[in-house]
Amino acid sequence: MDDHFIEMRSLIKVYPPDTLALDRVDLDIREGEIHSVIGENGAGKSTLMKVLYGMIPTSSGEISFRGRRVRYASPREAVAAGIGMVHQEFMLVPSYTIYENVILGAEPVGRLGALRNAEARRRVRSLIDRYGLNLNIDDRVRDTSVGAQQKVEILKLLYRDVDVLIMDEPTAVLTPQETGELFRRLRDLNAAGKTIIFISHKLDEVLELSDTITVMRRGRRVTTTENRGLGKADLARAMVGRDVVFSVEKPPARCGDVVFEARGLSYVDAGGRQRLDKVSLAVRRGEIVGIAGVEGNGQFELVQLVTGLAPVQSGQVKICGRDVARASVIERRKLMCYVPQDRKASGSAQKMSLTDNSIMTHHRLNQQLESGWRALLSPGKSRRFAQNLVDTFGVLAPSVDAPISSLSGGNQQKVVVGREFLFGADFVLLDQPTRGVDVGSVEFIQREIIRKRGSVGGSAGEGAGVPSAGCLLISADLDELFSLADRILVMHRGRIVADLAPPDTTREEVGEYMLGVREPQTIAPTGAGSGACAGAGACAGAGEGAPAR
Asked: Which of these CATH numbers, 3.40.50.740, 3.40.50.80, 3.40.50.2300, 3.40.50.300, describes 248-335+425-542?
C-alpha cells in the first residue's frame, strides 16, 4: 500500500459569513484500503469528501493525489483523475436504460462524432461480468430496485476507470440483503485494487467493512485508527465526546383506543401508476406501529394522504374517530403531530429564526401565544415558548434569535421534534425522524418517541397515568424499527404484505417481505393487528400548549 496515495494537509473550509466547516484537517488515505469517515451530522465528513471530489472549493490547505498536488475545479476533473463519488441521492435518469445512464456524458465517439455504440455496449457488459453486478443493460432504471440503481452508480464510475470510490451513506435505503450484497461487491472492488472511502452513520457497518476509521467532530479530525479491537461504544464516544446508549428501554405496550385508522386507501399518481392498493392499518394509543419497506413502495404517498398534501381518491382516513379524508391540512393538524422526513425542505424555514421555526403551526392553534388583544401573536410569548423548547429538548443553539440553518442537523431535528411533541396530540406521524442525524441526537429523539408513546392501563411503576399517544413510524432503518416499534408493517408495491411482532421476527425476514420474495400474509381488513389492548378515553386536540413530557 502507498501511504502517500491521498494526502490532505491543513484543510480549512469556511461558509460565509462565519461557519467553520473544516478546521485544519489532516488526513492520509492509503492505496487499496477501505477507509471509513464517521462523525456527527455537521462534523465535516461530507464537506471533506466534497472538497476532495471537486464539488466545493477549499478555503485553504493542500491535497495531494499519487504524490502530486491537486485542486480539482469540478467533479468531472476529479473523475478524470481517478476519483469518483456515489451520492446518497442517486444521480440517474429514470427513463433511460442502464446502458444509457452509464455512458451519459462519456459517450465514446469516432471520427465525425459518430457514437461507437457496439464497442461501448461490449465494455459495459464486460464490467458487469467482471464485477458480478448482475444487471441487464437494456432495463429502464425506473423499473429497477434501489439496490440495482446503486450498482448502476458504481458501474458509472467503473466505466470511467476510477481508482477511488467515495460512498456517501450507501446503505441508507437498502434492505439487509441488499446491504450484504453491496458489501460483497465493495470487497470485490477492493480486492481488484480499488480504494474505497466509506461515509456512514451506521457504526456496525463501519466496523464490519473498514480497514481504517477516521472520526471527525466539529470540523476537526479527532482520530484515525486501524479497525482492530474496536466496538460501537468506542466509535460513538469519539464522535460525541461521551458514552452513548444504543438501545432504548421501553415499557410493554398497553394499548388504548384507536387514534388513527386507514381503510382501503388506494392512490394512482398523475402518471397512472398504482402507488397505494387498498391499504388498511390502525394505530392505538400507547403503541408504536412501524412501517418498513424499500423506498418508493407507497410510504411517501401514504404520508401525503394522511397529512392532506394529496387527495384521498378512495378509502377512509380517521384520526381520533373523525373522518378527515376531506378535511384541510390545518384541521388535521389540530389532531396530530407530524415530523416530516426532510427537515430542511418540509420541516423548517432555514433562513428564519429558531423562534419562528419553534412556533410554526402553534401560531395558528395555540392561543397561549396570543397577546390577548385582537388575538395577535405575542413576540415575548413566542420567544419564551422557543426557549422552553430549547431547554426541554436539549437544543444547542447560540440564541432563539439565531437562524435555524446555523444549527447542526441533529439540533435542527430536535427543534422539529420538540415543536411537534409540544402539541400534545394523541396521534403522532413520524416520517424518518432520525434520518441523517448523529448517534447522540438519535439516542435523544428515540427516547422522546418512547416517552411520547408512554403506557396506558399500567399499574403503579409501569407508566400508569402517563399521557400517551399512538405513533405511526415510517423508517428506512430496520434497527430503529426493531428498537422502537411494537408492530412492524411491511409495504411492498403499495400494499401491506406483513404484520410482524419484532420479538418474533428477524431483520432478514422483514427484508424478504420488503423485496417481495416472501408470499404476503393475510392481513386483517381493519389493519388493527393483534394483541391485548385495554382502555378507552377520548382523543384530545392539539394546540393546548401542554408539554408532552
From this structure: 3.40.50.300
